[in-house]
Structures are given as C-alpha cells and as structure tokens.
C-alpha cells in the first residue's frame, strides 16, 4: 500500500470523527501550517510539498509528531529532513519516525 493511503491510520487517533481534532478545526490546520514556516527556504519547500500531499489525511498523532519536529532548530530539522541524521532519544518515537519518512519522501 502506498504511504499516502495508509497515512493517518496509525496512532489510534480519531482525527476524522472527533470534533476537537485537527481535521475538524480549520483554525488548527492554519496554525499548523503557520508553525511549519521556517527560516530556511529548503525546509519551507519540503513542508509545503508535504502539506499539499498529506494535509487532508493528518491524524492528531501526526500533528503531534509534526509539532515536536517544529520545536527543533532550523538546522537540526534540515539534518533530519535530508537524512543527514536519524532521530534519537525522544525523537525516535514511532509517530515522528513515520512522519519524518513521509517528509523525506516528498
């Protein structure tokens, strides 16, 4: 199964039925896109392609993983996105690893 067909199905979230979920709230979606804006153009381009392809299927677990990635510095994030580094410690969470794989593929 291609990654975009299974995306958002893990993590046990109820993104498409929970009224408080990311998908149910346009303001939350806009905030997530705003948080994705980075100081490095390369990161911005990756996130723009990612949202164009996956935004409609993001689960709450996916949003949580992205939020944790957004807390990184631009250079650390770029190293992960370009596979110069692999996620370690708290970032080796399965949700982060899955989302990072999709980010790397866009």
From TrEMBL:
GO terms for biological process: succinate metabolic process. Residues 1-26 are annotated as: Disordered. Keywords: Chaperone, Cytoplasm. This is FAD assembly factor SdhE. Belongs to the SdhE FAD assembly factor family. The keyword ATP-binding does not apply. The keyword Transmembrane helix does not apply. It is found in: Cytoplasm. The lineage of its organism: Bacteria, Pseudomonadati, Pseudomonadota, Betaproteobacteria, Burkholderiales. Pfam families: Sdh5 (PF03937). One of its GO terms (cellular component) is cytoplasm.
């Amino acid at each position: 199964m291609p990654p975009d067909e299974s995306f958002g199905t893990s993590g046990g979230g109820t993104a498409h039925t929970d009224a408080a979920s990311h998908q149910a709230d346009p303001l939350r979606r806009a905030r997530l896109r705003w948080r994705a804006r980075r100081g490095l153009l390369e990161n911005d381009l990756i996130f723009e392609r990612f949202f164009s392809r996956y935004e409609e299927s993001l689960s709450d677990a996916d949003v949580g993983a992205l939020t944790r990635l957004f807390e990184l510095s631009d250079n650390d994030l770029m190293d992960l996105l370009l596979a110069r580094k692999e996620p370690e410690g708290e970032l080796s969470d399965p949700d982060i690893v899955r989302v990072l794989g999709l980010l790397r593929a866009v």
